[in-house]
Design a protein that fits this description.
This protein is an alpha/beta fold. It is 24% helix and 32% strand. α3 packs across α4.
């Protein structure tokens, strides 16, 4: 690999580095999620699935909600407990989790976390777990990349995107290249990190499932959810970004997809 070390995820292993690379001082993602919850009168009990460093979970907690943040990364959870206190942080796998039956009024899944469900079985496992966790009428709020954007568009593909920033006195440079794996319906990412302190380069590989709007509607309906919103913006990662008071969009053509769905009353949780 041309002298590169390969790691699973440099950012996940180093939560402070993650927050330096993706700063969100205004808690835009958390505020957007809170706006969705308020719009549909969600109850106070919220699960932030794939909570990462805990920034959004802590914002929801400060908004007056009783929040559980769940993630698979022990490093992220330790950082969240130390730096973003308030929520209860637990380790759980979004592919299949059981944190109790009907114990949450909403499940929030931000920043494409849902798209780490690569297979249909993993997607079914996530949605069945949400169905188990939610009280009748509970909400699922998710924000992710939009698979439909890549139909006929190549502006984000096969072109290295470079970002440079300083952390702990070291200049970090990331070069990221995206490509579409059509057979697996995945957006694959190769990111190469280089550093100005003489450390060897690090290469990371990851992928997101490419979900299409109508496919997502079908999956949600099959698991007992009624789609209330499904649109391409505005949202926390759109350009321009969402602002307080913005209504939900009416199209699903942009590179981000936002969904709010309600668990239909009478839907039975899986055994």
């Amino acid at each position: 690999m041309n002298g590169r070390a390969i790691r699973d995820n440099l950012l996940t292993d180093n939560p402070e580095l993650y927050e330096a690379r993706f700063p969100d001082p205004g808690r835009l993602a958390g505020r957007w999620a809170e706006g969705c919850l308020r719009r549909y009168g969600a109850g106070a009990r919220v699960l932030d699935m794939g909570c990462g460093t805990g920034r959004d979970a802590a914002h929801l907690h400060r908004s007056g909600r009783t929040v559980t943040g769940a993630d698979l990364s022990e490093a992220m959870l330790a950082h969240a407990r130390a730096h973003h206190p308030g929520p209860d942080y637990v380790r759980a796998d979004l592919h299949a989790f059981d944190l109790g039956r009907a114990v949450f009024d909403a499940v929030v899944c931000l920043d494409s976390s849902l798209l780490y469900c690569h297979t249909n079985a993993q997607l079914d496992g996530f949605l069945a777990s949400c169905r188990r966790a939610l009280a009748p009428g509970g909400l699922l709020v998710a924000e992710m990349r939009n698979g439909a954007y890549f139909l006929g568009r190549t502006d984000l593909l096969d072109r290295p995107a470079v970002n440079t920033f300083s952390w702990r006195g070291v200049d970090h440079r990331s070069t990221t290249t995206l490509s579409v794996d059509r057979a697996e319906q995945l957006l694959r990412r190769v990111r190469v990190w280089t550093f100005d302190d003489g450390s060897p380069p690090v290469e990371q590989r990851s992928a997101w499932r490419l979900l299409f709007p109508q496919e997502l509607r079908h999956l949600l309906a099959a698991h007992g959810f009624e789609v209330l919103e499904l649109h391409d913006g505005p949202g926390p990662r759109t350009d321009p970004p969402w602002q307080e008071g913005d209504p939900p969009g009416r199209t699903a053509d942009g590179d981000r997809l936002h969904v709010v769905a309600r668990l239909r009353p009478g839907t039975l949780p899986p055994h």
